[in-house]
Amino acid sequence: xxxxxxxxxxxxxxxxxxxxxxxxxxxxxxxxxxxxxxxxxxxxxxxxxxxxxxxxxxxxxxxxxxxxxxxxxxxxxxxxxxxxxxxxxxxxxxxxxxxxxxxxxxxxxxxxxxxxxxxxxxxxxxxxxxxxxxxxxxxxxxxxxxxxxxxxxxxxxxxxxxxxxxxxxxxxxxxxxxxxxxxxxxxxxxxxxxxxxxxxxxxxxxxxxxxxxxxxxxxxxxxxxxxxxxxxxxxxxxxxxxxxxxxxxxxxxxxxxxxxxxxxxxxxxxxxxxxxxxxxxxxxxxxxxxxxxxxxxxxxxxxxxxxxxxxxxxxxxxxxxxxxxxxxxxxxxxxxxxxxxxxxxxxxxxxxxxxxxxxxxxxxxxxxxxxxxxxxxxxxxxxxxxxxxxxxxxxxxxxxxxxxxxxxxxxxxxxxxxxxxxxxxxxxxxxxxxxxxxxxxxxxxx
Length: 446
Prior knowledge:
This is Multidrug-efflux transporter. One of its GO terms (cellular component) is plasma membrane. It is a multi-pass membrane protein. One of its GO terms (molecular function) is xenobiotic transmembrane transporter activity. Keywords: Antiport, Cell membrane, Ion transport, Membrane, Transmembrane, Transmembrane helix, Transport. By secondary structure, the protein is mainly α. The chain has two domains: about 10-230, no CATH class; about 250-445, no CATH class. The chain is built from 17 helices and no strands. The protein has helices at about 10-25, 25-35, 45-65, 70-80, 90-110, 115-120, 125-140, 140-155, 160-185, 195-220, 235-265, 270-305, 310-335, 335-340, 350-380, 385-410, 415-445.
């Protein structure tokens, strides 16, 4: 037994709340850019649209290659549960070396073709120009982001979410301050850089986070960042998990690509409203993801210790907590329904489109909670193949057909977010059924 008799809410929160704070850093960076760029006095709608398009593409890159975090976390946590950490002590450095090397190739292969990439999202004219300018700066923060995410995975495997929270807070606060300074400028000192300023602010924040990640990992853990060879015996399992998550995340980003492409095709007012709504959806998702991270961390440890009874108990508590958080987010969103839109833009047409779909974003929150909780639990268990198959089916069998049907009937933004709701339902139910079928019998025999 890893833990004595039960897993208390206090213990779950000890891991979940710092993970929640660190998890919302990326959407806060995007939301900060969205809010500040959306209030630029010149071409605000075009700037807002560009940030949304680039944000979707950057999220795809980060999520596809950032899966090293979950793969490292699941392996390390299972070895912690088995009381055999020394066997994988050199694995994180090797994994970080691999992913950061790939990130350099991504920069080289996408930077010259930024215009062609964003034309695929239906961007044109000034929106396309802004998208290219914003991306060709932000992409240089990509290796630092992947490095930080891999370090976060190592910390999580070690059952430590506190130091990632500190690092993420430093990144978020520095980004907010730099956004105001670089976007709007300081009279007599710094000229306003508008959308380029937002990109520079993000890159600087990502570099700071990577630097603090190095410091805390070396000071607070027995893990080295110096890659040594030959590769650890677990590297094959690590690569296989990353590949499964890679395919899974491609499917996830196909969903986001089509959602963004359709919104852009409806016109600049629609993509601007979509940008606000999807960033708020990301924020809610990452807030729930704090408990998903706790599920990842603890399920890996309990699975490694073969403590199936506590694993089932953990799962039941996480579902209750996640749904409660989702309902609270929906209620808060209803209370601040009108003011929240005004934080991002004063354009009446954009606000009207945003208000017409925000209610769907709020209804989705409890459904998202179940999906994200099980995502975290199954990542901790190392069941990446199942996660891959569920997302492939929910994307190609549910989301895309629903999206096209609703587009045919001219639902526009409402159609996009209704399709996303069905997508989340299709992601959560199979995982719920599989977990109960697999682990409840094991818990009874434990």
